[in-house]
Amino acid sequence: MVVSLRDNDDLQLNAYCDGELDPVSAGEFERRLASDASLKARYDRLSSLRQAVRSLPQIDLPAGLQARIRAKLDTERPSNVVVLRRRSWSFQALAAAALFGAVISGSVMMTIEQYAQRENLAGQVVADHIRGLLAPQPFDIASSDRHTVKPWFTARLPQSPQVPDLAAQGFTLLGGRVDVIGHDPVATIVYKHAAHTVSLTTLRPGQSVSEQTIAGYNVRSWSDVNFTYVAVSDLPGADLAAFERAFVAAEPSPEIK
Question: Which of 34, 40, 92, 198 is positioned for an S-S bond with 233, CB 3.0–4.6 A?
Fold first, then answer.
């Protein structure tokens, strides 16, 4: 059987994540991760999925279920090999095993589905950020005045976010634009930090986006009672974390009618 280069990469990627590579192989693989954006993106997706699976809630089995299953199997264990090959588990034992498997499978599938939804949201937000960078300007309304940008959003969206002035923290307000995520128009506030553009997209509360890197852009997300915020930039992760802290700590601007 011929193993493709991608299959070999996947084998090494899984072995690396499981800590099964020897130090030399792990070092070589880490150097590849640093230079291969596609491989790094696959590593980030796999790491996020593994973290999501680890976060599955622990399932409390009914009291005595394990003991009952073991007792049932013990009573049906045959005394010789010939009978062992001919007999099967009882309906009750199979039902118990099927029920347990269904619970586990349902939880895993739910987690994978939620992970896919988060990945899809993150991908759409990053795509809007890239489109903004490719456009003549990354905003629809150009202004460093929050009292101009906030009413512009209010006139176009059912709910508009606060637009804090973060210039003192090193993030200059450039303006804002309306993006479309799924079928929903959403506000995106645009800031500048040195030569880097930061797009801050506001989604409905309760939506979730994991911290990750997509196509070389870092994604960071947090929430409050009104919105889920998703910041995208080519800034290093530490600087994007500083942006989050500055935004969260900023005094809310007065509501403008």
Answer: 198
